[in-house]
Amino acid sequence: MESSRRQQAQSDLGMNFEREDLKRNAALAKEQERVEKKQAKREQMMNRSSYRMMVKTAKYMDKYYLDPLIGLIPGGFGDTISSLLAFPFIYYSLCVVKSIPLTLAVIYNILIDVMLGAIPVIGNVFDIFKRSYVDNLKLITGYIEDDKEIISKVRKKAFATAVLIAIVCFLIYWVVRAAIAFFHMLF
Predict the structure, then answer these.
(1) DSSP one-letter code for 146
(2) Phi and psi of 98, rounded to 5°?
(3) Among 65, 90, 76, 77, residue whose Cα is nearest residue 140
(4) How many whole angstroms separate alpha carbon 81 and alpha carbon 60?
């Protein structure tokens, strides 16, 4: 009886510990369910054939130095082939992970690799040391696993890529505008 009086007094003072315990336990259960769903989604994403393809591509292109060897093909064809092999990374980040910042970060690494690889002779040396495929795989894997450091890198690279895209769009605008003005002068 004394405990019921105490409970009543606590309830009157707004100190209903039983209800708070129920709320806390419900919140903990909901959080545990969310964590389990997220873990299942991670496992599902990493078991996809496209993920395994990215792992193999990164292995052969960067660890076995296939990227610099392909870059030796003259006429820019090697760099074009190398760039095409990066499309699974873009597809995965955009369509599977569904993250625009991650996709921009992946594109950033690809653009840097293409830019460095396009430099005659020296570009192939850069390709030996710049491992963009492994870097992209690390970004994607870290992003899936909620690695805070990787997510920070993704945000920085995404911002840099977005700025680069804005600059290129601005330049395209001015080139088109100059071309129109030139045609008006001629005719």
Answers:
(1) T
(2) 60, 50
(3) 90
(4) 14
Alpha carbons 181 and 170: distance in angstroms, whole number: 17
Relative orientation angle of helices 132-144 and 49-58, to the nearest 10 degrees: 140
Query: pLDDT tens digit string along 76-103?
Result: 788 889 889 999 999 999 999 999 999 9
- Residue 123 to residue 119: CA distance in whole angstroms: 5
The mean per-residue pLDDT over the stretch 155-175 comes to 90
The pLDDT value given to residue 15:
65
DSSP 64: S
Residues 6+ apart with CB under 8 A from 92: 48, 50, 51, 54, 140
Q: By three-state DSSP, how is residue 121 classified?
A: coil
C-beta separation of 116 from 65 below 8 A: no
pTM over 0.90: no
Please, where are the H alpha helices in the chain?
Answer: 2-12, 17-46, 49-58, 66-71, 77-84, 87-91, 100-117, 122-129, 132-144, 148-186
Quick one: pLDDT at residue 140? Answer: 96
